[in-house]
């Protein structure tokens, strides 16, 4: 095992490693991230291994399961090096053809390539696909090249060179200055400048000091940190060690939710490998700097992403926030100076040290520098992880990268910032993405969740959903959050069920004020955002629900009714057969009618009615038209007239 | 200990370093309401009723006085329109759970809180944590604790500990603002250690 006792030893090791790796040897990278695994990537990996063995190519080809490259919508993703051919939605059945054609014959399997939906053109390489082409991928770009269980893959790409540079060529103050100069802001939600946080800890008198990775990613639909931790754990470790050096800490913690078993496994494995290489432990790279890291598994509470609750949980106590007016970088874990940064923040550190603050600040807006990973989900064509420069517009993310809204539906809003973020309407899609810009729009950057909603989404119901989530996740320690959110959830539920009353909006506003102004921690303080932002941009929807008992998006079950348009119904019997409540009266050649007494508003008839007929309608806020008299229901077909 | 001068409701107040705004105010006879505060216990900051407005470095912000430390030249206002409005809301939220608590009713008079503003959910406990913390911090017994989280959170006696420790203590009983604690104790006793408690009584 290599013992890297100096920066030179590290570089020699890297040279040796690269000399043993022929860049022309074919390498098949198969995404083994959460999304692709769910689409069957492990079967694909097994099929490749078996096929290569079968075709006698075992010594000539490398295969590896890698981290997530982001294009989850089209997973399992396979990239073949050195040509960088990108195959999408690969199944085990495609494997023999890929091996015999692409690996042996150097021919591209056209049917597995990306096809541009507008031009019909095929893209052979990842970089030609619009989803990737419009990104700026410095953090997740390497995921597809790295087997996260193999430190050598990270080393081959220059891994730990930033650590070597920091330890051998820079003083701790210089590292701190570089991070301050980069204006790197926390990627976990608050957006606090990392350099200032570090400086506070460095200057704090108490010892020992701690550095902590916040990997308690809990926002529904968000998996940025998961992809980084699972796919490139060494980049986070390297950042953490550099942070420890900068503030004078010798002890780091990774607080990762136990619901991410692969992340726990990969980062634990990465720590072991780094220790074996002397990149962790005593006298790292011969610098005299000691540093060790411990992985701590969270027990599954959303609130533990909050800094003081996380530290309390790390101490082994119930994960509830602390009521303190002193920052945790001064008095944090065990009352000692503690720098807590999010996974993505730490992953940026090696880049800043290697390439410099000036390189980093070329991306972004005045107040938000660098790139940011977003998890693009919801009603969007290309679901996945996207890394973009700060300052890109929401429109570019949603349309250029995300490919717009599927099914010909109209865009309605994008929810950013996780459950306590806000919804941004269409007229603000030119908004540049940045911490201050999103906050001004009534939302927030949060950790990078981005949920796209189309015209079928009811904004009152969206607010209800998120407030419900936060009520469930409230730790219950303070009254404004525990009791205030409980009441907000009740009122919003009533409104979506047609039981809204005059004065509900004002009461919700008053409860919001109490939660924002008087809650103990950031969870409660930001929890009313889903309500406040939807009220700001979609007030008419609240009023329609309360005053007219109407859901404009035709989504709230209690406020809609289904009706069959007698002029369009062809009496095909499909809806009548599928109705689980036996609520559809009809037979062959008899126009179907929904018995409103029996109907449960499940929507099955609406979904199964063939689009060419489109006879089933949703209506809200108006009486259901009376069923046509039985005598007029018979359909006289032209063919039968003859 | 250096002396700190601050202003509370227009009055010059002297305090010692390390004191909270609440302690400084009370030492001068200025009333700030509290529900989860107790001199013998670590600050909890849960009820938020002791919220006050402070001017600090040119900013006006709301803080809870049971935790916020005094500082030189700090300006504190204990009754503003906003402070009162928030206190009223906190009381109304709690009155949905414990409508007959004398502490809550007294404060409700001061702040004009409507005990029927929210639908009753008579769980009686207002989660001030006085019993739990007193048992842990002063008695060091942990015979009563919180279980579950958020809106499902409840106090609960731990039968194994309560059976041994509680019968001759019960110092937490008068701390409870709603009497729910006694009920919880009696219920635990009846369900979990009725015989041991009667033995204890007969030994007396």
List keywords for this structure.
heterodimer; A: 642 residues; alpha/beta; Glutaredoxin; Rossmann fold; Ubiquitin-like (UB roll); 5 domains; 4-stranded mixed sheet; 25 helices; 19 strands; globular; B: 204 residues; alpha+beta; 2 domains; 5-stranded mixed sheet; two-stranded antiparallel ribbon
Plain-language structure description:
The complex is a heterodimer of chains A (642) and B (204). With 642 residues, chain A is an alpha/beta fold. Chain A has five domains: 20-129, Glutaredoxin (3-Layer(aba) Sandwich), CATH 3.40.30; 159-361, NADH-ubiquinone oxidoreductase 51kDa subunit (Rossmann fold); 371-457, Ubiquitin-like (UB roll), CATH 3.10.20; 460-547, de novo design (two linked rop proteins) (Up-down Bundle); 557-641, Alpha-Beta Plaits. Chain A contains 25 helices and 19 strands. A five-stranded mixed sheet of chain A has the order 12-11-15-13-14, with helices on both faces. In chain A, strand 13 and strand 14 (422-425) form a beta hairpin. The longest helix of chain A is centred in the last third of the chain and has 19 residues, at 529-547. Chain A is globular, with a radius of gyration of 28 Å. Chain A starts with 6 loop residues before the first helix and ends with a helix. The mean pLDDT of chain A is 94. With 204 residues, chain B is α+β, with helices and mostly antiparallel strands. Chain B folds into two domains: 3-79, Ubiquitin-like (UB roll); 130-203, no CATH class. Chain B is built from seven helices and seven strands, in the order ββαβββαααββααα. In chain B, the strands form two sheets. In chain B, strands 2-1-5-3-4 form a five-stranded mixed sheet, with helices on both faces. Chain B has a two-stranded antiparallel sheet with strand order 6-7. The radius of gyration of chain B is 20 Å and the shape is globular. The chains are: A alpha/beta (642), B alpha+beta (204). The A-B interface holds A 301, 318, 323-325, 471-480, 482-484, 486-487, 490, 510-511, 513-514, 517-520 and B 43-49, 51, 62-64, 67-69, 82, 85-86, 89-90, 93-94, 96-97, 118-119, 126-127, 146, 149-153.
């Amino acid at each position: 095992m290599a013992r890297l006792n100096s920066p030179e030893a590290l570089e020699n090791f890297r040279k040796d490693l690269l000399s043993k790796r022929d860049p022309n040897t074919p390498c098949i990278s198969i995404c083994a991230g959460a999304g692709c695994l769910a689409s069957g990537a492990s079967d694909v990996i097994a099929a490749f291994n078996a096929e290569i063995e079968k075709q006698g190519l075992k010594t000539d080809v490398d295969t590896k399961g890698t981290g997530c490259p982001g294009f989850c919508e089209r997973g399992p993703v396979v990239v073949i090096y050195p040509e960088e051919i990108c195959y999408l939605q690969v199944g085990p059945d495609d494997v023999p053809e890929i091996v015999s054609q692409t690996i042996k014959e150097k021919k591209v399997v056209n049917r597995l390539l990306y096809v541009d939906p507008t031009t019909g053109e095929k893209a052979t390489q990842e970089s030609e696909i619009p989803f990737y082409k419009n990104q700026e991928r410095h953090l997740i770009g390497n995921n597809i090249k790295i087997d996260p269980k193999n430190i050598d893959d990270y080393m081959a790409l220059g891994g730990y060179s930033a650590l070597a540079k920091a330890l051998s060529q820079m003083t701790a103050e210089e590292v701190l200055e570089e991070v301050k100069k980069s204006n790197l802001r926390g990627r976990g939600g608050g957006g606090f400048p990392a350099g200032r946080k570090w400086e506070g800890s460095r200057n704090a008198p108490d010892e020992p000091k701690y550095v902590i990775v916040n990997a308690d990613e809990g926002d529904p639909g968000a998996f940025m940190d998961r992809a980084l931790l699972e796919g490139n754990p060494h980049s986070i470790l390297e950042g953490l060690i550099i942070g420890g050096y900068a503030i004078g800490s010798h002890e780091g913690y990774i607080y990762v939710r136990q619901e991410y078993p692969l992340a726990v496994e990969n980062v634990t494995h990465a720590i072991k490998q780094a220790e074996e290489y002397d990149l962790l432990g005593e006298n790292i790279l011969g610098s005299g700097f000691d540093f060790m890291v411990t992985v701590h598994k969270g027990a599954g509470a959303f609130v533990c992403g909050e800094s003081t609750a996380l530290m309390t949980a790390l101490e082994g106590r119930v994960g509830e926030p602390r009521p303190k007016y002193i920052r945790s970088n001064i008095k944090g874990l065990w009352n000692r100076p503690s720098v807590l940064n999010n996974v993505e923040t730490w992953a940026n550190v090696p880049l800043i040290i290697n390439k410099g603050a000036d390189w980093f600040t070329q991306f972004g807006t005045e107040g938000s520098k660098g790139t940011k990973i977003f998890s693009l989900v919801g009603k969007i064509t290309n679901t996945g992880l996207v890394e973009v420069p700060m300052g890109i517009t929401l429109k570019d993310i949603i349309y250029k990268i995300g490919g717009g809204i599927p099914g010909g539906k109209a865009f309605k809003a994008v929810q950013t910032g996780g459950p306590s973020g806000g919804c941004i309407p269409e007229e603000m899609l030119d908004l540049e993405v940045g911490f201050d810009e999103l906050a001004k729009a009534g939302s927030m950057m949060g950790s990078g969740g981005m949920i796209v909603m189309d015209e079928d989404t009811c904004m009152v119901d969206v607010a209800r959903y998120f407030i419900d989530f936060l009520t469930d996740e409230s730790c219950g320690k303070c009254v404004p959050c525990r009791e205030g959110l409980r009441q907000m959830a009740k009122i919003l539920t009533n409104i979506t069920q047609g039981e809204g009353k005059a004065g509900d909006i004002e009461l919700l506003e008053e409860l919001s004020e109490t939660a924002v102004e008087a809650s103990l921690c950031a969870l409660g303080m930001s929890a009313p955002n889903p309500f406040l932002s939807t009220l700001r941009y979609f007030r008419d929807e609240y009023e329609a629900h309360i005053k007219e008992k109407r859901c404009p998006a035709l989504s709230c079950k209690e406020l809609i009714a289904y009706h069959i348009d007698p002029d369009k119904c062809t009496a095909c019997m499909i809806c009548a057969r599928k109705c689980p409540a036996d609520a559809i009266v009809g037979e062959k050649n008899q126009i179907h009618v929904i018995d409103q007494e029996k109907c449960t508003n499940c929507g099955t008839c609406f979904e199964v009615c063939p689009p060419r007929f489109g006879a089933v309608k949703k209506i809200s806020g108006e009486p259901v038209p009376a069923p046509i008299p039985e005598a007029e229901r018979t359909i006289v077909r032209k063919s039968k007239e003859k | 200990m250096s002396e700190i001068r601050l202003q509370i409701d227009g009055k010059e107040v002297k305090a010692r370093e390390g004191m909270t705004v609440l302690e400084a105010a009370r030492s001068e006879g200025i009333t700030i309401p509290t529900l989860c505060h107790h001199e013998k216990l670590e600050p909890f900051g849960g009820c938020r009723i002791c919220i006050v407005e402070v001017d600090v470095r040119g900013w006006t912000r709301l803080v809870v006085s049971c935790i916020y430390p005094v500082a030189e030249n700090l300006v504190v206002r204990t009754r503003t329109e906003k402070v009162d409005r928030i206190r009223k809301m906190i009381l109304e939220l709690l009155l949905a759970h414990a409508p007959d608590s004398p502490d809550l009713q007294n404060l409700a008079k001061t702040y004009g809180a409507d005990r029927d503003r929210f639908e009753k959910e008579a769980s009686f406990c207002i989660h001030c944590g006085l019993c739990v913390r007193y048992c842990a911090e002063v008695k060091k017994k942990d015979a009563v604790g919180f279980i579950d989280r958020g809106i499902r959170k409840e106090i609960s006696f731990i039968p194994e500990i309560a059976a041994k420790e509680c019968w001759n203590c019960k110092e937490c009983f008068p701390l409870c603002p709603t009497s729910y604690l006694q009920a919880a104790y009696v219920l635990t006793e009846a369900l979990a250690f009725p015989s041991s408690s009667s033995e204890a009584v007969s030994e007396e």
